Fold:
Amino acid sequence: MIGWVYIVTNPDLRGKVKVGFTARDPSERIAEFKQAGLPRRHRYEFGIKCEYPQSIERKVHQRLRGKRHAGEWFSCSVEFAANVLLELVPEPFETNDPASVTPAAQEALRQAQYRLQEKEARDRAHYDKLKKAADDAHAEHVRMLPVWEERRKANAIAAAADAEKAKRVKAGVVTAIGIASTVACPPLLFVWGALGLFLTRKDR
Structure:
């Protein structure tokens, strides 16, 4: 639902504002008001067009609960109530005719626009910071790629050398055992020689 949340005052209630909502034109709705004990007409001070106006009105009432006078009337300035409303809806679809907006509501609008600009600036700075960090990380990754490749090659060469060394050691041990055995039993010379040849080829 799209509608309006509005702020009105009445000359007979100084320092008080009323916050309400309507799905119609606020001026038409306010013209229908018949407040008991208030002979003079209400004045439409400020209004914004937004989604879920009833929910926004309820949130404004909640924010102003400490200043409640009676019903939807609150003891605060138009500017204060408008600021609360614009904090909840910083980018309304529409506001009432600028020519009819009171100076207090105009000041609230100006402050809301300033807050929005500040938020956009903070968001932009945060985005730039994250982007720079990502760019720096990518640059560091690209810079380290040749280093990592060299390390990989060195590790592969070292592993191959270790495997060759282990193979030679194994063959030497077999040969030594064979020689030692054949001293006591010469026919074992052929057996140990064949075993050494088999193990050497198996490791290739």
